[in-house]
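Can anyone check this?
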Amino acid sequence: MTDAPEWVTRHEGGVTVAVKAVPRSRHTGAVGVQDGAVRIQIAAAPHKGQSNAALCAYLAEQAGVRRSAVRLRRGSTGARKLIEIDGDPDQITARFAVLAGEIA
């Protein structure tokens, strides 16, 4: 079992990820950690949910799960969000531990 980054909370059936979203960025990607949340820049604008959709797609790709396994649990209109990802918590945590190492 891999140690989870501070911004990942494991639970039965998946994980919850704390995110600080920065829409209208040059590219989409994780750039660091801020106040216990992973800071993710999103190229899409926060118009009609476009940036939330892009954020969920990015996290699905990073977690190695289908897009349908990722959902916004809290923070649809704010910068701070909680994203729930269904899947094997060990595998998802291991992938996010690699991502955490890349942005550290």
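Reply from J.R.: I decoded it. The helical segments are 50-63, 89-103.
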